[in-house]
TrEMBL record:
SUPFAM superfamilies: NIF3 (NGG1p interacting factor 3)-like (SSF102705). PANTHER family: GTP CYCLOHYDROLASE 1 TYPE 2 HOMOLOG, NGG1 INTERACTING FACTOR 3. One of its GO terms (cellular component) is cytoplasm. The keyword Iron-sulfur does not apply. Belongs to the GTP cyclohydrolase I type 2/NIF3 family. It comes from the Bacteria. Keywords: Metal-binding. InterPro entries: DUF34/NIF3, DUF34/NIF3_sf. GO terms for molecular function: metal ion binding. Transmembrane segments: none annotated. This is GTP cyclohydrolase 1 type 2 homolog. It comes from Saccharomonospora amisosensis.
């Protein structure tokens, strides 16, 4: 008899195949956080952040599994009491029969992974990783891609803004608005530490999140690529659609991609 309903373990197997855990950084915390692998699952919620808003969404949609990019318990903990923010989330998920699975830096480095999804949203043809795990390899952090045709930097910044979900801080650019942009490096999430790699790659522009003042200014002064800054959540949100397709391909399961903005910045003067 053919089984028509998936277990949590079936979805995990599909995600592990797409985002192998061995690609995760040593300091990372990926995999099943809470929940029973043998529990049946008919609905799954995919999101960037496992926070109160997305747990609410899982409850509202009847999801029995949350697939999140960011880990809930990244640093070591000695208890998950309900008197702590994260502990209360764990208890709420358990009481609601919701499992939580996280794919973080393994999803960043996988082929395809987080930066492939970002590149695709921007209309880039991916050529190679920005920081490959090994020379000539296809896994690693960030991606280098190219547009079908060059366009002015000002237009490219508007392209990025149109492609990603709206946030209060928005999208900002640093560079000559008339500079032709064809080759582009992207890094979903905090890509500040890959500024030098983007400059060394000789790309025309670099799109990432969490850029700092001094490193960004120094790269621009040195003739590096034009820079496009976006929020952390917005840069990684395209991955949710990619991960949703991985889950759907596992079998008979309904997948909901969260559109709730979990960016912490909610006011702008």
């Amino acid at each position: 008899m053919t089984r028509t309903v998936l277990d949590v373990s079936d979805v995990i197997a599909a995600l592990d195949a797409a985002y192998p855990r061995e690609l995760a950084e040593p300091w990372d915390a990926v995999g099943l956080v809470c929940g029973d692998p043998a529990e049946e699952v008919e609905r799954v919620l995919v999101c960037v952040d496992p926070v109160a808003a997305t747990v609410d969404e899982a409850v509202e949609t009847g999801a029995r599994l949350i697939v999140a990019h960011h880990p809930l318990l990244l640093r070591g903990v000695h208890g998950v009491g309900t008197d702590t923010t994260k502990g209360s989330l764990v208890h709420r998920m358990i009481r609601s029969g919701i499992a939580l699975f996280c794919a973080h830096t393994n999803a960043d480095s996988a082929d395809p992974g987080v930066s492939d999804a970002l590149a695709g949203a921007l209309g880039l043809n991916v050529l190679a990783p920005l920081a490959p795990h090994q020379p000539g390899g296809t896994t690693g952090i960030g991606r280098i891609g190219e547009l079908a045709a060059a366009e002015p930097f000002g237009d490219f910044v508007r392209r990025v803004a149109a492609a990603l979900p709206a946030t209060v801080p928005g999208v900002y650019g640093a560079g000559d608005p008339d500079r032709p942009i064809r080759t582009v490096a992207v890094s979903g999430g905090s890509g500040d530490s890959y500024l030098a790699a983007a400059s060394a790659a000789g790309v025309d522009a670099y799109v990432t999140a969490d850029l700092r003042h001094h490193p960004a200014g120094e790269q621009l002064e040195a003739g590096g690529p034009a820079l496009v800054g976006v929020t952390h959540w917005a840069s990684e949100w395209p991955w949710c659609g990619q991960a949703a397709e991985v889950v759907r391909a596992a079998g008979n399961v309904e997948v909901h991609v969260s559109t709730r903005c979990t960016d912490p910045w909610n006011l702008r003067a």
